[in-house]
Amino acid sequence: MKELKFDTLVIGGGSAGMAAALEVSKRGFSVAVVERENSMGGILNQCIHNGFGLHHFNEELSGPAYAEKFIDMVESSNIKVFLDMTVMDMEETGDMKYVYGMSGKTGMIKFCVKTVIFANGCRERNRGSIGTPGTRPSGVFTAGLAQRLVNMEGYIPGKECVIVGSGDIGLIMARRMTWVGAKVKAVIEIQPYPAGLTRNIVQCLNDFNIPLYLSHVVGDIHGKDRVESIDVIPLKNGVEQKDKSFNIICDSLLLAVGLVPDNELAQKIGISINPETNGPIVDRQLMTGKNGIFACGNVLHVHDLVDFVTEESERCGKYAADYMDGKTFSDQYRTVPGQNIKYLVPNFYSPHRDNKFYLRTMIVKNRAELIVSVNGKEIFSKKLKHIQPSEMISFSILEDTVGAEIISECRNNTLEVKIV
Amino acid sequence: MKKDMICISCPMGCRISAEWGKENIITVTGNKCQRGDVYGKEEILSPRRVVTATLNINSSWLGRLPVMTTGTLPKEFIDSLLNKIYKFDLDVPIVRNDIIIKNISNTGIDLIATRSVRT
Ligand SMILES: Cc1cc2nc3c(=O)[nH]c(=O)nc-3n(C[C@H](O)[C@H](O)[C@H](O)COP(=O)(O)OP(=O)(O)OC[C@H]3O[C@@H](n4cnc5c(N)ncnc54)[C@H](O)[C@@H]3O)c2cc1C
Ligand code: SF4
After folding, report:
1. Which residues of chain B are in CATH 3.10.530.10 domains?
2. Which of A281, A315, A291 is nearest to A394 (CA)?
3. With a cut of 0.90, is the ipTM above it?
4. I need a surface site. Which of A159, A283, A347, B40 has the fewest CB within 10 A?
5. Closest partner residue to B56 among A68, A154, A180, by Cβ?
6. Which atom of ligand 2 is nearest to the CA of B16?
7. Residues of chain B with C-beta less than 8 angstroms from the C-beta of A63
8. Contact flag B53-A48 (C-beta cutoff 8 Å)
9. Mean pLDDT in each 10-residue stretch from start to end of chain A (420 residues)?
10. CB burial class (10 A; 0-12, 13-18, 19+) of residue A180?
11. Which DSSP helix (H) or strand (E) runs through A359?
12. Pocket lining: B69 vs ligand 2, CB cutoff 6 Å
């Protein structure tokens, strides 16, 4: 088996992997990026709509255009990219990590590295994970797969479709399917409010008079070989109103029911996972429970804006370089999600450094307040105009905001975040 | 007359209102920036949208080329633009920002490639 030595190996060449690799490389370390597909860019390659890069590049780009700007930077750096190669396995002895990448062209390659950055994205929840009843005819797709088929391969998955889930992916696909000549008959959402951005409700549903059924679920799926129709059941206070169910004729069903970080490999080598994010538990430097192994982007927690992925991943690259320069910090304490918080990343903070946090709330509210406290003392607060679960919130606690008088050797110094 | 709507020019999604009287002078309120004012007025007079789609290319590894309009296009031109797009069969190489259709229906708006495909 061929063996190659690098300082850092990045798993995945999507927006996260590219941003992290560039930062490590800028600090003079040797970096390899292993990417399963035949080009870098990851999920961005199939997101052909505009709306990317407003924060990072201050222009409105399509997903592939955003990716290409980073691909150009990677190609003019010293980063070595291995395309069409899948990371299959990994092991560690002492400070060294061995990562096994498999490709049809080169066979198995063993990478011997000091640091590994997980940037391998997320996967879609499928029908199994939402438990829709009914027969199993063809014509049921996850929305991301349908997006890939339409946008990259030119294959149209159906003529009359129903979309399950009103997150941005579901909404964007409603417009896309309409624009390729299919009829989108309905979008079904289990929650009483839409999961996606309001602008996408306007431009992807209202523009085409596509009905959005809030507080509704899919009952039976009918059809022997191919989907022929589905039953839709309204919910009242969370209870199915079976007597009020109705039928929609359609030949395809697109499931946009959420994304989950892809952490099989991380779990296999014993990295602890946060059950709220399904991503690894990480410290202030985005390092997992294993020294020298980092995570960023959708594999850490699912992001809705690529600009945030880039920000987080650039920091991750810097932290990995810091680690190799011998800069690690032991003065770290836990962070915990308090009232109305679904999750908080990272899981540790340091009172003597800058700390950047990302979180999601569980509630929908206008005029909310985010409050941060340590040992029960409020140290920071921020007013938020509007919050909802689908929109990620970020804030920073700068160096020495948590005063020396608050940190105490006999307390646990946990930082708690709540929203009221 | 008054119409409440949501500005779609950026992800903020401001709730805006457009009001107009007999003289057809439209005033927009609730917008957080100038783009909202433009959007509100256009939405009453002639709604416009950015169009994104993909078209066929003869590449060795990629089936479809992503394309996008350089600005918003009046809605009535969208269907004919899509029909044109789906008839294309382009040869590579293509460079990002290459113009695929110039001056769509005399609107001054172009259709451009949003990705480079070399082979
Ligand atoms: C459908 C959809 C629509 C979106 N729309 C918007 C939008 O309008 N605006 C916006 O700002 N953001 C949007 N986002 C969010 C944003 O684009 C993504 O969150 C971001 O691009 C994710 O980047 P990533 O690098 O973490 O993951 P990915 O892009 O998924 O990259 C992961 C990469 O890892 C590779 N990989 C996985 N496993 C392995 C392995 N074992 N070995 C080698 N390689 C591997 C994959 O092939 C992939 O290339 C959207 C996301 C999705 C899914
Ligand atoms: S008014 Fe300005 S800030 Fe508000 S949604 Fe429109 S473009 Fe965005």
Report:
1. 52-113
2. A315
3. yes
4. A159
5. A154
6. 1
7. 66
8. yes
9. 97 98 98 97 96 86 97 98 97 94 95 98 78 76 95 95 95 97 97 88 96 95 92 95 96 93 93 96 96 98 93 98 90 95 96 94 93 94 89 91 81 94
10. middle
11. strand A355-361
12. no
